[in-house]
Amino acid sequence: MSTPADAGKDGDAGGGAPVRVCYISDERFPSRWTDTQQIMKTASALARDGAAVEVVLARKWNVLFASNRARKQKLERYYGIQADFELTQIPSVPTSRLRLEKLVHGVLSALYAVFGGHDLVYTRDVFPLVLALLAGKRAIFESHRVLAQHYPITYRLIQLVRRRRRFLGVVTNAAFIADSYRAMGFEPERVVIAHNCFDPRDMEPALDQAAARAHLGLPAGAKIVCYSGHIQKKKGIETIVQMAARTPELQYLICGGFPDDVAEARALAAAAGAQNLTFTGWIDVARLAPYLYAADVLLIPPTSIPLQRHGNTVLPIKTYSYLAAGRVIVAPRLPDVVEVLHDGENALLVTPDDLDQAVAVVRRAVSEPGLAERLGARAAADAPLYTWAARAALIHRFMKQRLRAERERG
Fold first, then answer.
1. 187 contact partners, CB below 8 Å, separation of at least 6
2. Helix, strand, or coil here: 48?
């Protein structure tokens, strides 16, 4: 049983001491993948909320001496954050299709955490989680996936360590993800829902539609449907192309995609006879807001494929920036989406994979100004519920509660 004299020892942030968090990620930073944005925003916000956060990343295998200060400055510029956390870079191996670098980083970062003075390990990666727990460290896992359906190996590994006393809990980004962990056997108090967010600074300066279109050189009178994010087929770009082919009177602005993905999407559009799509290529978060402000409609592909077939898109992070932009959102009525977007209140929801309905709803959104104004205003009013500061405060409280509960259990 822990005593007041133990406060400050490994895993026991007692009294008013800040929780010391070893935040491990095996992703490559900086990167255009949304996961890296979410990790950096969360780590930064946790540090600003008062946690003592140390972020542990892999460094390039061929770099002998890496400057933490220089890399932090690069991360700050790229992600638009204030990096109040400490940064540690662990040697790695060359990247490959086998993804051995992830296993190596998982082992080395967990080893680093074992000998550190942190209260807990926090990670979205299963290897450092399992290794840290097996070595006796306290840990919290953040998960955005229904593991049993799409990630069987991770599912089995989590089940292997689920009952360990120092597995403090799971942070999820959606209620139905939390439900899947409770179904695995996690007690309700060990699972918390912390939806993803937007950063108000990324939406500055706020622009009305006319100013945004003038800034971007877009036609003032066009009816513009905007999608932002990755555009691989598993993200639903085929559905957007089909909608564009059915609504030639609308302009579709596609903000995202690596060059190969853009080329493939253009080929899909050509095959469908859709000549009303504009592909911008990738736009970094800091430059995205004017495109959202310029739109009449903000689109989440109305298909179930990303969630149900691939399982890798759960409440996409664009949802929250869409809310903040104050425009009509058209999205699929899926278990994750309905947690944040409500039909006829702050969005228009359609039956997934019903192309006729999707086309009708988009046409309605651009043809009823009163509806657009009402839904957009409610979306903007709901956006402050989903900021990184609020999310970090929730996760920080969860950490303290779980540490306290673990100490009381002895």
1. none
2. helix
* One-character DSSP codes across 82-119: ---SEEEEE------TT-HHHHHHHHHHHHHHHTS--S
Q: What is the DSSP letter of 347?
A: B
Q: What is the mean pLDDT of each run of 10 residues along the chain (410 residues)?
A: 34 71 96 93 98 94 78 94 95 85 94 95 97 97 91 96 97 95 97 97 97 98 96 86 98 95 96 97 94 98 76 80 98 95 98 97 97 98 97 98 92
Residue 61's pLDDT is what?
A: 72
- As for how many domains the chain has, the answer is 2
Asked if 366 and 297 touch (Cβ cutoff 8 Å), the reply is yes
In terms of C-beta density within 10 A (0-12 exposed, 13-18 middle, 19 or more buried), how is residue 322 classed? Answer: buried
Q: What pLDDT shows up at residue 94? A: 87
| Predicted pLDDT at 64 | 63
Regarding whether 25 and 95 lie in a shared domain, the answer is: yes
Separation CA 120–CA 169 (nearest Å): 11
Q: What is the CATH number of the domain that holds 209?
A: 3.40.50.2000
DSSP class of residue 30 equals S
What length is written for the chain?
Answer: 410
210/223 Cα distance (integer angstroms) = 12
The number of angstroms, rounded, from the C-alpha of 383 to the middle of its chain's C-alpha atoms is: 16
Are the C-beta atoms of 161 and 330 separated by less than 8 Å?
Answer: no
Are 57 and 106 in contact, with CB atoms under 8 Å apart? no
Dist CA 376 CA 328 (whole Å): 5
The whole-angstrom separation of Cα 231 and Cα 267 is 13
Amino acid present at 280: T
Whole-number pLDDT of residue 15: 53
Same domain, 121 and 213: no
**What is the residue whose two structure tokens read 């968090």?**
21
**Cis-peptide into 30, omega within 30 deg:** yes
SS3 (DSSP) at 278: strand
Burial-class residue 19 by CB neighbours within 10 Å (0-12, 13-18, 19+): buried
In terms of Cβ atoms closer than 10 Å to its own Cβ (0-12, 13-18, 19+), residue 272 is middle
Residues 375 and 403 in one domain: no
What pLDDT is recorded for position 393? Answer: 97
